[in-house]
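Reopening this ticket.

The earlier resolution said the output was attached, but the attachment link was broken on my side. Pasting everything inline this time so it's all in one place.
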Amino acid sequence: MPFFHSSMLAIFNEDRPLIWVQLSRWVMAGKIARIRRGWYMIEKPWRAKEVPVPYIATQIVQPSYLSLDWALQYYGLIPEGVPNPTCVTTDRPQRLQALDRLFLYHHIQPALLTGFMQVSIDGQNVPVALAEKALFDKIYIHIQRNKFSLEWLRELRLQNLELLELERFASFADKTVKWGLEAAIRVTTEYIRKERR
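Inline output:
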């Protein structure tokens, strides 16, 4: 695998400081790229195959899964393409710049680390939110800092709404108590029902 964590090098009978020195030399020589502390990618031409960015995103911060804008575009629920991976995690919120991408991680409560499935992307299993959970997460993250409104919901330009199971969508709200969330889910559900007609 051309993408690896430095802990995998423990199989070699070398002192850890020597391994770190060698990794630093390879980075300076352009043979590997440091993605994040401890995570590396073999550079071209030494890399035999590509590693999907969505797979990398869910490996360098764990536990996490792809959600929000990235998952909404994956399901065709929004018209825009989203090149930067957007993930949710129970870890702290983070923004990481690597591989000419911005990796975004938003914090959710541990009870909400659900509603995703493994999807094969370029031969790698990647945890991706269900369509309903991606929309739920988008609302949940939004109301942490902003007021929910129908105008904001319309600005998402949601499409292909027939893909959403409204009972499943609403059920995620049962896993947490957050001021304004229940009302936002109710308004969104009604909006989707009207738009489907």
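Reporter confirms the inline version is readable. The chain has a mean pLDDT of 94. Residues 2 and 48 are 7 Å apart (CA to CA).
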